[in-house]
Design goal:
The complex is a heterodimer of chains A (about 210) and B (about 160). Chain A has about 210 residues and is of the alpha+beta class. Chain A has one domain: Glutaredoxin. Chain A has six helices and nine strands; from the N terminus they run ααβββαβαβαββββα. In chain A, the strands form two sheets. Chain A has a seven-stranded mixed beta sheet with strand order 2-1-5-4-3-8-9, covered by helices on one side. Chain A has a two-stranded antiparallel sheet with strand order 6-7. With about 160 residues, chain B is of the alpha+beta class. Helices cover about 15% and strands about 45% of the residues of chain B. The longest helix of chain B is centred in the last third of the chain and has 14 residues, at about 145-160. Classes of the chains: A alpha+beta (about 210), B alpha+beta (about 160). β7 (about 170-175) of chain A pairs antiparallel with β5 of chain B, so a sheet runs across the interface.
Chain lengths: ~210, ~160
């Protein structure tokens, strides 16, 4: 628990942890340094207060309604970026989030998990409505129009790349698989690694839920 | 009674030596989809008694089936088509979430947990002879666990502690 670290060192360490996290996402380097740099309060690396991660978003839900982060003020929000044709990291990430929310019991109602598609061409509203709730009835899918998706990903520093497939419809995506967690005041706080467990995620969410509104 | 025991033994002995040895396929499953979702992964393990390779697959419920592999580096997941999956003699080769797997593309139907999905695997031996293996894979829930990723998680803990 940060023995021998004063507050300043700790903040610097957090900043470094986050910088390393973003670097890992962009350069596809190892994540080992990241997990080692996590602070004592949370399992996941903390996003420093001065990180330029968006404090808001404007995305659309399956019903065509515009949603902004402030819609969930007072709740903890977990943002996961992916695509439904992803065979592995996306279902695994959402299954873990669902398990974490269930581990919280009734407090799980105070967490909103949002799946933001990086593939709005194929993840039509019909798919986006059904896919997240296959993991948990409270999960929500959001999208930006295809032309704006790259800008959204860039703003959130989520790496992704489209790889052409054998046919125009069978392309695949490489993409970042971290989960961003915003606190009840709407501040970006944690970047949870794909390798974190549901238990660790639940503990981190519980710590954030215990903070004052 | 005695005849029924002898007869199959006789038939086996009479088979020509050139017939390709049977590849064993264990616990095939595919991940469920939601309506209009066009792709999903198929997973199983294989054991071939002779060196061979999985070179193709197809399914009546998918326009295309491709062999893919997944890599997670740092916090980025990438998936790529591959042309074949080697099957060394007598080794268990796992096609599992987090690694090599089949992708069922251009799905013609959505797959609900508990249903059965037909698949045909094409295995080629070292002489270039191909054999087809029809099978049915169990459709498991969308949130079925991914053992490989859990393995990575345990690994990370070892490094952390």
């Amino acid at each position: 628990m940060n023995i021998g670290m004063n507050k300043k060192t700790r903040v610097t360490a957090q900043r470094h942890a986050f910088a390393a996290f973003i670097l890992a996402a962009l350069l596809t380097t190892s994540s080992v340094a990241l997990s080692a740099a996590a602070t004592g309060e949370f399992h996941a690396p903390e996003i420093p207060a001065d990180a330029r991660l968006p404090k808001n978003f404007r995305l659309t839900d399956a019903n065509g309604k515009t949603r902004v982060l402030a819609d969930w003020r007072g709740k903890v929000v977990a943002l996961f970026f992916g695509y439904t044709q992803c065979p592995d990291a996306c279902p695994t990430g959402l299954a873990r989030a669902a398990q974490a929310v269930r581990l919280l019991g009734t407090a799980g109602k105070e967490v909103q998990v949002i799946f933001v598609t990086l593939d709005p061409m194929r993840d039509t509203p019909a798919v986006l409505r059904e896919y997240p709730i296959a993991f948990h009835p409270d999960f929500l899918g959001l999208f930006a129009p295809p032309a704006q998706t790259p800008a959204v990903a860039r703003a959130f520093r989520v790496f992704y790349r489209v790889n052409p497939g054998a046919t125009p419809q069978t392309y695949t995506l490489d993409h970042g698989v971290q989960t961003y967690v915003y606190d009840k005041k709407g501040k970006p706080r944690l970047a949870i690694s794909h390798a974190a467990s549901a238990e660790e995620m639940a503990e981190d969410l519980r710590t954030l839920l215990a903070e004052k509104d | 009674m005695r005849l029924s025991l002898i007869l199959p033994a006789f038939c086996l002995a009479a088979l020509p030596a050139t017939v390709q040895a049977q590849v064993e396929i264990h616990t095939p499953w595919v991940r469920a989809t939601v309506p209009q979702q066009q792709a999903t992964g198929a997973f199983f393990s294989l054991v071939s008694p002779v060196a061979a390779k999985l070179v193709a697959a197809r399914s009546p419920i998918a326009g295309r089936v491709e062999l893919h592999t997944i890599q997670i580096q740092g916090e980025v997941m990438s998936m790529r088509p591959i042309s074949e999956i080697p099957l060394p003699a007598n080794e268990v080769v796992n096609l599992a979430p987090g690694g090599a797997h089949l992708m069922l593309l251009e799905l013609k139907t959505s797959l609900k947990a508990g249903e059965q999905a037909p698949l045909i695997l094409v295995v080629e031996d070292e002489k270039g002879e191909r054999k087809e293996y029809p099978l049915t894979a169990e459709v498991r829930p969308l949130d079925a666990p991914s053992p490989t990723l859990q393995g990575q998680h345990e690994h990370r803990h070892e490094q952390k502690n």
